[in-house]
Design brief:
8-stranded mixed sheet; alpha/beta; Dna Ligase, domain 1; 33 strands; binds magnesium ion; about 15% strand; binds phosphoenolpyruvate; 4 domains; D-amino Acid Aminotransferase, Chain A, domain 1
């Protein structure tokens, strides 16, 4: 028979799948001898059974009762006892933390009778009634769906009637009346009385937690964070401890390091005389841990020593929730804490530096996505206007957009928006996902807005208290900012600016560029350490796609080990178009050769510059790929020009001849037409000219004492015969130029037929380079220029794919073509070098796949090189998480 319930004494931190993160960590803390209130966890197995059948599984009831008895025996208190009732908290907790998504219910066990018992036993009537009203509120919302505003309205009315500003100031009589008012609201909405039976409360709460797995916002959060939908949640049932038991009590959250910067030293928020969710909800303003040290030095010291133990045990930043009840500290939760990308790097490098983890482990604790985030630009504030307000810098980044005040408006917006709220709650999730940034006027670094934004890597400033936020505008002093106005928020400094601010490159980018030293900057030294370590362990080299000397130099600074794709088409643009036109219009060999002869020195200079910038490293030069008409005026433009000339009674001359040529070479589907190797075979002398230019450039570089390492790559090959023809001609051209170093000739694999016949092609190719852009286009039959904007949004909604296959490699389809080609190619040529030069080469998830597929290198735009280097290292080190869901 399945076992559905685990006492906190029975579990440990490895059992996250079964007990959820929260349950496993509560068990671990219990094992460590830390002060955790007694309790038990109902497993995710039970949840999955419930989700399958719609009912709690057989046997669960008895197990819960048995474990309840144990708690009762340990505390000497019974659930439902009218003199000295045991009260329980019920909290959800899945395998992955989902901040604010699932529900918590506190004070289970209170009813019209036990509330009196609690009042007598605690000697604090106010506290008993405050706890009861919280139970009705949380239970009403979570189990019966009573809208939270209904309770909020009663609470506001009670404050007003009593003439007080905060809930903490409400007296006993007011709270008793509030309980009655809440019960009326409950009856009106639910059509029944608030349940008085403590066991009914408990089982309804457990069931409600299970059911809340499938609420819309939970589903949305999981989709956003790539968390599987079938894991289910566990439920943690724990004896209540009370932070709302007077000024000697309170509740707080803390981090063992600063989750925003990674700086060493505890960081936290404490709220005296408060319970449970008050801190995370950011409803009341908290004090720092230093203040706690002043108010309650003993608990503070204990907390610090526990945090140190937790960091050593978890070997990572931990965040915790704690409660102090009458001067006694209790641990309610711990987990490996969420952090900003900067903090992830700093913490991983620090822990490796401290010897707590290895550099390999450190590498698995950061992601390419996080590094990409750190390379985003920040605001240039040199000429910025005075900030409108300064809030808490909760999640770094620079975001500008028009102001919106509710989640629906943010979700519906087409341009960038900043979601401005008093505070956020889980219902705001769709708007938070859609917005560029989030700004709130209440709450600290641990408020809902802050936690969720950090998790998403989204810019957030919270607790900007000078802001008076209304439904369609906010005011700061005399300034009014209305819906639709543009503001800029800086998540690193907490500043809020009017208008759109210019941005400047990130410090990480400037360090890569050699403009900043890493010394003394914890983030830069961390990036240096981890990307450096990635390079030492990676199996996959990282090259860059670069066509100019400037790009090549940047790629080198960013750590590229060569150029994997030097496209040559830009070398036919600008003033050189005229030569291309002559080439196309040539009526005979002589005219064509003369146009090519003029192109030759220009190309040679282009290649010389790139080879110089990449001296000593491979440079893969791809022969011209696009259809020639891309270099000519469009059919429409020419038709128009010719028609005008004729209307003026003039001879259209050159334009007339061009029009004839363009009509002749016009194609319905140019991407499937005369391009790549086909062009090379159809336009005599074109490829030969390019090969000659490469050879001459290499010879000149070598003669000048350089170390040129060019390679020649043929695009769009589908049949080995095409490659053989080009190769024969190229070899002949190369051998005719003196002083040329050995130049390998390889092919792109970007047509499905090439992938499938790779075994035939390999003997004619010194290397393969997968053009995954075209391979994706042709494998799916998707025009890469048209479909993404046209219907990919809908395709994602329909679940055809989660991300565009042009962004992340489609492992099952295009990936299979890659694997097949590598296998077939290497079966005849075991040392065949294979790389990727499509956009996927710089995509973190795709890099993992290319590593697994046994490729030798990826090539991507210079800016993405560091990300690919990091991911190549991570892939080599092990099976760490691929996504950023930490
Ligand atoms: C490709 O198709 O993946 C490729 C790199 O070539 P291009 O993008 O130039 O077609
Ligand atoms: Mg291509």
């Amino acid at each position: 028979m399945s076992r559905y319930v685990f006492d906190f004494n029975d579990g440990n931190k490895e059992l996250q799948d079964l007990l959820g993160g929260k349950g496993a960590n509560l068990a671990e803390m219990t094992r460590m001898g830390l002060p955790v209130p007694p309790g038990f966890t109902v497993t995710t197995d039970a949840c999955r059974a419930y989700l399958r059948t719609g009912a709690l599984p057989d046997g669960l009831f008895q197990e819960v009762e048995d474990h309840l008895r144990l708690i009762e025996a340990r505390l000497g208190r019974r659930l439902g006892d009218s003199a000295d009732p045991l009260l329980l908290s019920v909290r959800s907790g899945g395998r992955f933390s989902m901040p604010g998504m699932m529900e918590t219910i506190l004070d289970i066990g209170l009813n019209d009778t036990t509330v009196l018992g609690l009042a007598r036993r605690s000697g604090d009537e106010r506290f008993a009634w405050d706890s009861y009203r919280r139970l009705i509120q949380m239970f009403g919302k979570t189990v019966f769906g009573v809208p939270g505003e209904q309770f909020d309205a009663e609470l506001a009315a009670a404050r007003e009637a009593a003439g007080v500003a905060t809930d903490a100031e409400l007296g006993t009589a007011a709270l008793r009346e509030l309980v009655a008012a809440y019960q009326k609201r409950f009856f009106a909405y639910a059509g029944r009385d608030f349940p008085q039976a403590p066991h009914e409360q408990l089982y309804s709460a457990i069931t409600a937690v299970f059911a809340s797995w499938n609420t819309e916002r939970a589903v949305l959060y999981r989709r956003q964070e790539h968390i599987p939908g079938d894991l289910g949640t566990a439920v943690n049932v724990m004896a209540m401890v009370f932070g709302n038991h007077g000024t000697n009590s309170g509740t707080g959250v803390a981090f063992t390091r600063d989750p925003a910067t990674g700086r060493r030293g505890v960081y936290g928020d404490y709220l005296p005389n408060a319970q449970g969710e008050d801190v995370v909800a950011g409803i009341r303003n908290t004090v720092g841990l230093d203040e706690l040290a002043r108010m309650d030095p003993a608990s503070h010291a204990r907390l610090l020593s526990i945090m140190e133990k937790l960091e050593l045990r978890y070997r990572d930043l931990c965040d915790i929730e704690f409660t102090i009840e009458d001067g006694k500290l209790w641990m309610l939760q711990t987990r490996v804490g969420k952090r900003t990308p900067a903090a992830a790097f700093v913490i991983a490098a620090q822990l490796a530096g401290e010897g707590l983890i290895t550099d390999d482990e450190a590498l698995l604790r950061v992601t390419g996505g996080q590094l990409a985030h750190l390379m985003f630009p920040a605001f240039d504030t040199t000429n910025a206007p005075a900030p409108l307000a300064i809030g808490v810098p909760a999640s770094p980044g620079a975001a500008s957009g028009t102001v919106v005040f509710d989640s629906a408006a943010a979700a519906a917006a087409t341009g960038p928006v900043i979601l401005v709220r008093h505070e956020t709650n889980p219902d705001d999730l769709p708007g938070m996902i859609a917005a560029q940034g989030i700004l709130t006027s209440r709450g600290g670094k641990t408020s809902h807005a802050a936690v969720v934004a950090r998790g998403m890597g989204k810019t957030c400033v919270c607790g900007a208290e000078d802001l008076e936020v209304g439904p369609s505008l906010f005011r700061v002093g005399d300034t009014v900012v209305s819906e639709g106005d543009v503001i800029s928020i800086d998540g690193t400094t907490g500043r809020v600016y009017p208008g759109e601010l210019p941005v400047r490159p990130s410090a990480v980018v400037r360090w890569f560029e050699g403009e900043l030293p890493s010394t003394g900057d914890p983030l830069l030294t961390a990036v240096e350490r981890l990307t450096g370590h990635a390079d030492t362990v990676a199996k996959l080299a990282v090259h860059a796609n670069a066509d100019t000397a400037a790009d090549a130099e940047r790629a080198r600074r960013f750590g590229a080990a060569g150029i994997g794709l030097c496209r040559t088409e830009h070398m036919f643009l600008g003033e050189r178009r005229e030569l291309v036109e002559r080439l196309i219009l040539a009526t005979g060999d002589e005219e064509r050769q003369s146009a090519l002869a003029e192109l030759l020195p220009l190309q040679r200079d282009d290649f010389t510059a790139v080879l110089a910038a990449m001296d000593g490293l491979p440079v893969t030069i791809r022969l011209i790929d696009p259809p020639l008409h891309e270099f000519l005026p469009s059919l429409e433009e020419l038709t128009d020009r010719v028609a005008r000339a004729q209307a003026r009674g003039e001879d259209p001359g050159h334009d007339g001849r061009l029009l004839v040529a363009v009509r002749r070479i016009h194609e319905q589907n140019p991407m499937l037409g005369l391009r790549g190797v086909r062009l090379g075979l159809m336009v005599p002398g074109l490829f030969a000219m390019q090969v000659r230019a490469v050879a001459q450039a290499a010879a000149a570089r070598a003669a000048a004492g350089g170390d040129p390492r060019p390679e020649i790559m043929v695009p769009l090959v589908a049949s080995v015969r095409e490659l053989e023809l080009v190769r024969a001609e190229a070899s002949q051209v190369l051998s005719a130029v003196e002083g040329v170093p050995p130049i390998r000739i390889g092919t792109m694999i970007e047509v499905p037929r090439a992938a499938l016949t790779a075994g035939e092609i390999a003997p004619a190719a010194d290397f393969f380079s997968f053009g995954t852009n075209d391979l994706t286009q042709m494998a799916w039959g998707f025009s890469r220029d048209d479909v993404e904007g046209a219907f990919f949004g809908r395709y994602r909604e329909l679940g055809v794919f989660a991300t565009s296959p042009f962004e992340t490699i489609d492992v099952a389809g295009v990936g299979e073509l890659v694997r097949t080609a590598v296998r077939r190619g290497r079966s005849v040529r075991p040392d065949l070098v294979a790389g990727v030069c499509g956009e996927h080469g710089g995509d973190p998830d795709s890099v993992r796949f290319f590593h697994d597929a046994g490729l030798n290198y990826v090539s991507c735009s210079p800016f993405r090189v560091p990300v690919a280097r990091l991911e190549a290292g991570r892939a080599a080190v092990g099976d760490g998480p691929v996504s950023d869901s930490r």
